Amino acid sequence: MHLTNSSTSVTVRHRGLLRDAALALGCAALFGLLATLVTGHWHPLHEFDQHWISELHIYAREHRIWTAAVQTLSDIGGPVTMRALLGVAAAWLLLIGARVLAGWVASQALVGWGAQWALKLAVDRPRPAFNDPVSHAGGPAFPSGHAMASAITCAVLVGLVWYRVHRRGRTAACAVAAGTVLAIGWTRVALGVHWPSDVLAGWLAAGVVLGVVTAVIELWRPGALARDVRRVNWRTRPRVQRVIVPYVRAPHAEDAELDDPRDRPDEPVR
After folding, report:
1. Is the pLDDT of residue 257 over 60?
2. What is the mean pLDDT of the chain?
3. pLDDT exceeds 80 at position 237
């Protein structure tokens, strides 16, 4: 019995490691290909970027109210906000004793921040330039920090609630996360501060960070993440149950007497 349980847990762990490694390697390969095309000034990609950025810039310049709304959304979903959300989540996990899970969340934020700037400086791609820009941003363009930070944060938050909700909740969480990531990435292109390929690169870089950090922690502390997930469920589920489960009043002695068949006038006493 013990051997079967151990073998099963090892198999599940290996599957998780393979999944994380596949995510990291797949995204890294695609990111490398995209970076090669960008640095090599591949003409079809250059034309694609130019077409989208030009069309959206014309629209943004002619619709100032719309542009202001897009700028607000971009500011709200910026890297500072996203990393602050991860910081709050890590602090809460630390307070309830899920230290490895808290370290996983904090590592995603810190490694993502470091990888973002390392990649930006390595590629050193100029941002789009206009004579009449509608927004401004500093630093190299590739990859998009907004796209990368939002993808990491939304994926981590979905992972934290994944085992706390049922299928409908998971579907809703994934839909909200995907919509948020797409919307924030789109705002950077609509404001003319990133090329579309920058945003795609940010999403791919986020996949690399998510896979690498998770795999490293799983190799360093095998099974610790799963144990912390169970600890979070155990620490939070009783509170949820007290709210959801209705209170049932125990019957009193007088209630039992009233329920005696002899006290029912419409029924014969047997």
Report:
1. no
2. 82
3. no
Angle CA 198–36–150, to nearest 5 = 25
Do 52 and 189 contact (CB within 8 A), yes or no? yes
Report how far residue 242's alpha carbon sits from residue 250's, in angstroms, rounded to the nearest whole number.
Answer: 17
φ, ψ (nearest 5 deg) of residue 139: 85, 170
pLDDT digits (tens, 9 = 90+) for 19-74: 888 899 999 999 999 999 999 989 999 999 998 888 888 888 888 898 899 999 99
How far is residue 32's CA from residue 9's CA, in Å, rounded to a whole number? 34
In the prediction, which pLDDT does 10 show? 54
CB 41 within 8 A of CB 224: no
Phi-psi category of residue 132: left, alpha or beta, with phi > 0 → left and psi -120 to 50 → alpha: beta
Region for 129 from its dihedrals, namely left if φ exceeds 0, alpha if ψ lies in -120 to 50, beta otherwise = beta
Where would I find the H helices in 1-98?
2-39, 43-62, 64-76, 79-95
Burial class of residue 118, CB neighbours in 10 A (0-12, 13-18, 19+): exposed
Long-range contacts of 56-65, Cβ-Cβ distance < 8 Å, separation of 24 or more: 56/189, 56/190, 56/192, 57/128, 57/130, 57/134, 57/192, 59/190, 60/134, 60/190, 60/191, 60/192, 61/132, 61/134
What is the arithmetic mean of pLDDT over 122-131? Answer: 89
* Contact partners, residue 94, CB within 8 Å, separation at least 6: 102
Mean pLDDT of 84-105: 91
Q: How far apart are CA 217 and CA 202, in angstroms?
A: 23
Residues contacting residue 236 through CB under 8 Å, at least 6 positions apart: 96, 164
